[in-house]
Design brief:
The complex is a heterodimer of chains A (about 160) and B (about 140).
Chain A: E1 18-19, H1 22-31, H2 42-47, H3 61-72, E2 84-93, E3 102-115, E4 118-128, E5 134-144, E6 157-158
Antiparallel strand pairs in A: 1-3, 2-5, 2-6, 3-4, 4-5
Chain B: E1 15-23, H1 25-35, H2 45-50, H3 60-75, E2 81-88, E3 101-112, E4 117-126, E5 129-140
Antiparallel strand pairs in B: 1-3, 2-5, 3-4, 4-5
Classes of the chains: A alpha+beta (about 160), B alpha+beta (about 140).
Protein name (chain A): UPF0336 protein QF030_004994
Pfam families (chain A): FAS1_DH_region (PF13452)
InterPro entries (chain A): FAS1-like_DH_region (IPR039569), HadA-like (IPR016709), HotDog_dom_sf (IPR029069), UPF0336/Enoyl-CoA_hydratase (IPR050965)
Amino acid sequence: MALDQSFVGRTYPPTDPYEVGREKIREFAEAVGDANPAYTDPEAAKALGYADVIAPPTFVFSITFKAAGQVVQDPQLGLDYSRVVHGDQKFAYRRPVRAGDRLTVTSTIEAVKSMAGNDILDIRGEVHDESGEHVVTAWTKLVARAAEPADSVDATDGKA
Amino acid sequence: MTAKIAYDDVEVGTELPTQSFPVKRATLVQYAGASGDFNPIHWNEKFAKEVGLPDVIAHGMFTMAEAIRVVTDWTGDPGAVVGYGVRFTKPVVVPNDDQGAVIEVTGKVGAKLDDNTVRVDLTVTSGGLKVLGMSRAVVRLA
């Protein structure tokens, strides 16, 4: 089903602040097997010039994707969420996310396309800290695959 | 910002140390918990096959997280990464055995840019297949 084109450019209200915790960063770093001390040792992070431990580059996705939920689950948009896969992902960092950050995400629909029966949705998430400073921008491309027998699935990361 | 690699010491073609990252079912369960992504295609074989996948697959974002380690290990300072993007082209299939899968990552400097930054082009494969496309990071060096 084709998505509602009038949604292009729509911006959703900022999310409630997400407070980044040291232990959550540690848990994430351990889950990806990354022993970089900047993620777990405040002294090592300070030696690099940061006020506290910093998060691995892709950590912020958990926050921006949750924020994008208000977009993909907007019933007026008409996205078939059960068939959604993650097409691509980009980040632009002003600075690394660090423990103690209280981050809000403002999501905007950048593009809505239909190609070969697939619905494609591009969402930009602008992440700001408590002082209003821009921290990182995340661009997420979601693809709702056309409903047909799955004989040649090249799905990547379904997010149903 | 204290990358341990100097801009003047690299050139287009400079290779980063290659790394291999093993991924087993337990890895995916752990990543699901840490990331909050509990999609059953990452832990439930029956469900994965019902939706047309060959088996349980790794989270795309897990693969993306592993690939950038080649860059952050090289720079020492993860905050040196100013941009990072990937396209998810093929799933990393993770069988339920002692072996699991392996994600292989190579990287090289693809371009020297302004402001002491370089573009690193990553090649990310599993089982000989490219699993990420257009996998690139922009990094600020010393």
